Amino acid sequence: MPKIKVKNTLVELDGDEMTRVIWDKIKKQLILPYLDIDLEYYDLHVLERDKTNDQITVDSANAIVKHKVGVKCATITPNMDRVREFGLKQQWLSPNGTIRSIIGGTVFRKPITVSNIPPAVKSWAKPIAIGRHAYGDIYKNVEFKVPEGAKAELVVTEKDGKESRKLIHEFKKSGGVVQGIHNTEKSVREFAQACIAYALSEKIDLWFSTKDTISKTYQGMFREVFQEEVDKKAADIKKAGIEYFYTLIDDIVARVVKHEGGILWCCMNYDGDVMSDMVASGFGSLGLMTSVLVSPEGIFEYEAAHGTVTRHFRKHEKGEATSTNSVATIFAWSGGIGKRGELDGTPEVVKFARALEDATIETIEEGEMTKDLIPLCTSPDPKELNTFEFLDAVEKRLKTKLG
Ligand code: NAP
Ligand code: MG
After folding, report:
1. Ligand 1 atom index nearest CA of 327
2. Residue 369 half-sphere exposure, CB side, CA atoms within 13 Å?
3. 329 C-alpha to ligand 2 centroid (Å)
């Protein structure tokens, strides 16, 4: 069978531990036999980051900026234990943090839905993607404990020295706490742009919520800026046949649990922190959660939402069989390949990516899966496969699909 030609470069970021093992298998077994593809490879193994003083991470992010699409394997973010384990020079920063600071943009998490793995919430028939505004608010707060009798004020000093002052609270009868938080219009605007880009790319409605009835100025700014960006893209939104829906956060929470899904839920920082965990656990397994970084300029980096699955890697190192779920990692590859095909205008490449996804889902739907999914599965007699048997089962179906 002739290989399908991928027109432009896909940037590949290799990683650590069990996901590195799976990564290589997926590439050799499910990608390279079918695609004639130029992969620009960056090895983000923790020792390689250490050897290059983390330059490799910076280089990989710049390569994604250049080529517009990247796929990333999970990587270790070193803590002190890891520094000792690998003899590292220092606790290198989180690669995802470094890459995000170069590419910019927002991380969207989307569960993979499979018919025999029903979500905890009965009405969720389609995925709910979550976009979290990951800047500011309480995550960059400044706070004090305040003694009784003290007075707390909010003071803003402008460039020319002009001062504005507001009383927060007089702690007359009891001490307490006080906190200052901030956000920037630029960051909110870029968040809105990334959310719109993602919703257009996935062709799903976008929902946004704040609590602007209470926080009229602070959260009100989020609502206004979001609306301005939506208005700028009104023609594209209409053309894609999708809608923008704004409501209060409590209203949206109530609606989401009765909704069928198939939406992008754009969240302020704290809401996204809490709600992404709720949605993830509602959909089942970490092994079914994908993640993509989307920049306002339309740069895409795909990965699995889980980590390097260290506990399974320890078993693998000892030669014991593991049952690590590779679905989210397969979907990182298919996501990147599908996006490459879409940007290049090569429908046959997009078709391959969808075939790989379908083969993966059908494997589970036909009752063959890794251990983590067995307790969640409604099939009468599910068959537990180890890490590599599952990939073989996907390969078998992919072969059939591609004729
Ligand atoms: P983790 O790798 O996500 O694993 C936590 C546990 O979740 C596993 O022990 C396993 O449970 C289950 N699990 C996660 N993914 C699974 C999969 N694909 N198949 C089956 N089970 C799965 O998180 P962690 O142990 O906290 O972190 C390990 C390393 O990953 C750390 O060094 C961390 O820095 C890194 N990390 C990287 C990223 C990233 O690159 N995006 C994200 C998170 C963490 P059982 O052991 O019960 O089977
Ligand atoms: Mg959280």
Report:
1. 18
2. 25
3. 21
Task: Work out the number of other CB atoms within 10 angstroms of the CB of residue 272.
Answer: 22
Q: Which residues contact 153 (CB under 8 A, 6 or more apart)?
A: 165, 166, 167, 168
Mean pLDDT, consecutive 10-residue stretches, the chain (403 aa), reads 95 98 98 98 98 98 98 96 97 92 89 92 92 88 95 97 97 97 96 94 95 96 98 97 96 94 95 87 87 90 95 97 97 98 97 98 97 93 97 97 89
Starting from the CA of residue 274, give the closest ligand. 2
Neighbours of ion ligand 2 (CB under 5 A): 273, 277
Report which ligand 1 atom has the smallest distance to the Cα of 306.
3
19: which 2 tokens? 């996901």
What's the 277 CA to ligand 2 centre distance in angstroms?
A: 5
Q: Which fold has domain 118-136+184-283?
A: Protein-Tyrosine Phosphatase; Chain A (3.90.190)
Q: Which residues pair with 40 in a beta bridge?
A: 11
Domain residue ranges in the chain: 1-112+289-403, 118-136+184-283, 142-180
| Ligand 1 and 335: CB distance under 6 A | no
Q: Whose CA is nearest to atom 10 of ligand 1?
A: 309
Residue 212: name the closest of 203, 221, 204 by CA.
221
Alpha carbon of 386 to ligand 1 centroid (Å): 17
Enter the pTM of the model. 0.89
- Rounded distance, CA 330 to CA 75, Å? 16
- 308 CB under 6 A from ligand 1? yes
How high is the pLDDT of residue 139? Answer: 85
The DSSP annotation for 199-254 comes to HHHHT-EEEEEE-TTTSTTHHHHHHHHHHHHHHHTHHHHHHTT--EEEEEHHHHHH
CATH number of 1-112+289-403: 3.40.718.10
